[in-house]
Design a protein that fits this description.
single chain, Glutaredoxin, elongated
C-alpha cells in the first residue's frame, strides 16, 4: 500500500509543482531567461514581429465565411492605410488555442489579441491597426 502512495501525486503537490514551459503561438518553446543573461544572446520568438520591423497582423479563424470576410477587410484596411504590414490567416486550431481565443474570428496585431468574436467594419479595423 505504501508503494502506491509514493507513485501518486497529491492535490497540493500538483497545485504547487513547478509549471512546465508553455509554447508560443507559433509552436516554438518559450524559455525563461535569468535576469543576469544578456538579452542579445538569447533567441526570441519571431512570431509577433518580423525582422524588418513590419507589423504582423493575423486573422484567426477556421475558414468560415466570417473569418474570410475579416481577412479581406484587414487586407483592404492595410492597403488603404498604406502601412508596411504582413497579413496572415491562421486556421490551425492548436495555434489558435495558444492565443486563448474561444470566439472566432479573432484579430491579432503584433502578437496581441485586439478583437474576438465580432464582425468588424473596415473603419473599426483601421482604428485597431493605427
Amino acid at each position: 500500500m505504501s508503494e502506491n502512495k509514493e507513485g501518486k501525486k497529491g492535490f497540493w503537490s500538483t497545485l504547487f509543482a513547478p509549471k512546465k514551459k508553455s509554447s508560443c503561438c507559433c509552436g516554438s518553446q518559450i524559455e525563461i531567461v535569468p535576469d543576469n543573461t544578456d538579452k542579445q544572446e538569447t533567441p526570441a520568438c519571431s512570431c509577433a514581429t518580423d525582422n524588418s520591423g513590419r507589423k504582423v497582423i493575423k486573422v484567426l479563424g477556421t475558414g468560415c465565411s466570417s473569418c474570410k470576410a475579416l481577412y479581406s477587410i484587414v487586407q483592404d484596411a492595410v492597403a488603404q492605410l498604406g502601412i508596411d504590414a504582413t497579413v496572415e490567416k491562421e486556421e490551425n486550431l492548436e495555434k489558435i488555442m495558444a492565443y486563448n481565443v474561444m470566439s472566432l474570428p479573432a484579430l491579432v496585431i503584433d502578437g496581441k489579441v485586439v478583437a474576438k468574436g465580432q464582425k468588424l467594419s473596415l473603419e473599426q479595423v483601421k482604428d485597431l491597426i493605427k
